[in-house]
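Dear U.,

For the methods section draft, I wanted the exact inputs and outputs in one place so we can describe them consistently. I've listed the two proteins in the order they'll appear in the manuscript figures. Please don't edit the token lines directly; just add comments below if something needs changing.

First protein:
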Amino acid sequence: MTEIARLHAVPTHRILDPEPLWREVLGQRLRELRRRRGETLTETAERAGISPQYLSEIERGLKDPSSEVLAAVAGALGATLIDVTSQVTGDLRSSYAVTTPQAYGQALLLAA
């Protein structure tokens, strides 16, 4: 029984590579959308009704915006809230698959 308990204590992912936070991936995605449009922070922030400083903090992953602010920024970038959240979710899934490629398989082996 001690052997089994010890097996369960072994981490199934690399501790050195923590998965990214939602706000970090969201910020990267918003910055990418803004730059693709060739806009400055000020231009996008103005249309979204927020300060350029706040938009910068969101893009750098320092602030976690409310759904209202996120919808306003997405709209200012010509996207919808569902577009942006779907893209971020996809980015997170891709990142998770890269950082923990064997975690799912190991969980199945333990269950068997």
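Second protein (the one for the lower panel):
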Amino acid sequence: MIRGTRGYMAPEWIFHLPITSKVDVYSYGIVVLEMITGKNPTLMNIEGDGGEMTYNGSLISWVREKKRSQCWVEEILDPAIGTSCDLSKMDILVRVALECVEEDMDIRPNMSQVVEMLQNNERVVE
């Protein structure tokens, strides 16, 4: 029997694939996205300004969808964070988090690579 919190578990757990340290990388990415957006990692219902439903899906899908727009970092930030933060560093943090939540564990970085990307403030290749 597998136990874990829905939304934080890597696909390997669900599909009974070999479990490696990459499952922790996946969970880390989810936690980072949750902290930046202030949104639950599982199914989300987001209302627009007029009360209409604008999105119904997972946090990962929502962030990836928003990433296509010009000011995507500002759009996903939790209002509690505001825009007084360094948006270029937020951009890097979110891009690293999105690499961490890749479904294919072979594409995900390991934690050493994550730390290196964050310490070097590297822009992650899209």
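Candidate sentences for the figure legend, describing the second protein: The domain at 11-119 is CATH 1.10.510.10 (Transferase(Phosphotransferase); domain 1). The longest helix spans residues 22-37.

Thanks,
Y.
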